[in-house]
Amino acid sequence: MDQLKEKSRKAFDAQAADYDRTEKGAHARRLYPHVLAALDGVREGELLDVGCGTGALARLVLEQGPKRRVTGVDLAPGMVAHARASLAAFGDRARIAEADSERLPFHEESFDAAYCNDSFHHYPDPGKAVFEIWRVMRPGGLLVVGDCTLPAPVRAVMNASLRFSSEGDVHIYSKGEYERILGRWFSSVAWRRVEGSACLVEARK
């Protein structure tokens, strides 16, 4: 597991400078409107951005809700540095920490909502990451996950090849797998396809 995380850390460190302008970040960018729409009902309070990358989505979340505060976490120091610089103008409404999604450094019930965009397929222990997000969310809180999806035969082939990934990719999840992993802790889980190769999952604590 640590080897997979180290692969992710190194890969996204190298991509941080131009991630927002290149094909590397294109899939994540296509998910932004869907994540923002899902979060529209959370107009204020504390939001957690899990796998925040460059902070580009956090910026849009903050602009969409002037009464929101966002805390972003990412495993890659390069991404963290980029996000801090990018969000500096928001002052104390934006906080960025270098942290592991499977070991979140926050107290229980600290956040009103959380979102994880194009990052979930990198987690070696997704159940632990989901528990950590659930732990730090307040009752009734909303979790939004945007990620990749593929038809079952293609997904099976892709998952078999991911062990050779240089970016620490772990697994592309099916609808049923999301429902099982998130449903262990969250009271409701709703999965939907939003584009040909993307899905959005909304879960309530």
Word description of this protein:
The radius of gyration is 16 Å and the shape is globular. The chain has 7 helices and 7 strands. The protein has a 7-stranded mixed sheet, sandwiched between helices. The model has no long low-confidence stretch (mean pLDDT 95). The longest helix is centred in the N-terminal third of the chain and has 14 residues, at 2-15. With 205 residues, the chain is of the alpha/beta class. The chain starts with a helix and ends with a strand. β4 (111-117), α5 and β5 form a beta-alpha-beta unit. 37% of the residues lie in helices and 26% in strands.
Layout: helices, strands, pairs:
Layout: H1 2-15, H2 26-38, E1 44-50, H3 56-64, E2 67-74, H4 77-86, E3 94-98, E4 111-117, H5 126-136, E5 137-148, H6 152-161, H7 175-183, E6 188-195, E7 198-204
Parallel strand pairs: 1-2, 1-4, 2-3, 4-5
Antiparallel strand pairs: 5-7, 6-7
